Write a sequence for this structure.
């Protein structure tokens, strides 16, 4: 009887341990981080595993963002190496995707395409998925 009870208790514990060892393949893009163009600071941080895709969302363009503002985003891995800049257009899709990332911790870098002296402040988020 004792062995049967122990075996019934062990199964849920194993399931919990195994499920927590393998996190979800998709990380929601609700982890908003603030950015400001031209301030010299990184614009958000996230982690990716080898082969994952990362979608970058500009969730809020602040009070100064309008239809003439085009932003470009690149991702720089801690330890070296950056992607090319990709365009994000206000009121178009407000997102861009980087594919087949190398494993590591990345920083976002948001810059303005036109009128770089006019700073844009807003929110950025990253969705990491397979």
């Amino acid at each position: 009887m004792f062995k049967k009870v122990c075996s019934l208790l062990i199964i849920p514990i194993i399931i919990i341990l195994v499920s927590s060892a393998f996190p979800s393949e998709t990380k929601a893009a609700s982890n908003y981080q603030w950015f400001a163009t031209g301030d010299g600071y990184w614009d958000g941080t996230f982690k990716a595993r080898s082969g994952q895709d990362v979608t970058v969302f500009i969730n809020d363009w602040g009070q100064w963002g309008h239809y003439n503002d085009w932003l470009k985003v690149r991702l720089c891995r801690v330890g070296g190496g950056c992607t090319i800049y990709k365009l994000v257009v206000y009121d178009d899709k407000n997102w861009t995707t980087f594919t087949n990332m190398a494993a590591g911790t990345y920083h976002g870098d948001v810059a303005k395409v036109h009128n770089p002296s006019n700073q844009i402040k807003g929110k950025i988020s990253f969705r990491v998925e397979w």
Notes: Residues 17-28 have pLDDT under 50 and may be disordered. The longest strand covers residues 104-112. The domain at 25-129 is CATH 2.60.120 (Jelly Rolls). Residues 13 and 19 are 10 Å apart (CA to CA).
